[in-house]
Design goal:
Length: 118
């Protein structure tokens, strides 16, 4: 059983090495960003103002150091924001697209800097 668990963990780490950016709602799943390649960027989506103080600061500190690349936070400020207890949220799609573009630009800049240093 231990071998099976270790194999899954290694597969997950290897999979993350193929990504430039990991984007997701705040939560423990973002710790996978620790396994991004050098220059990788983690984007934490904070869906509700009520969750601003939940854990975004701690994740930011952890992921900045782990990924060795960038870290971005997007905080939802949509006027029709729904109640956080319902599990739903309303977003402006263009904001998500913009933060994804910024994350990719950060990755490209970091990769170029790593290339220049070599």
């Amino acid at each position: 059983m231990q071998y099976f668990f270790n194999s899954i963990l290694l597969w997950q780490v290897a999979l993350m090495q193929n990504y430039a950016v990991v984007m997701g709602m705040n939560g423990a799943g973002l710790t996978n960003g620790l396994y991004l390649p050098p220059g990788g960027v983690v984007v934490q989506l904070v869906p509700h103002p009520y969750r601003l103080q939940l854990n975004s600061v701690e994740f930011g500190v952890l992921l900045r150091g782990g990924a060795g690349g960038g870290y971005l936070e997007w905080h939802n400020g949509h006027a029709n924001l729904t109640d956080y207890r319902s599990g739903d949220t309303v977003v402006t799609v263009s904001e998500i697209v913009d933060v994804a573009r910024k994350a990719l630009e950060m990755f490209e800049t970091a990769r170029q800097q790593l290339h220049d240093e070599l």
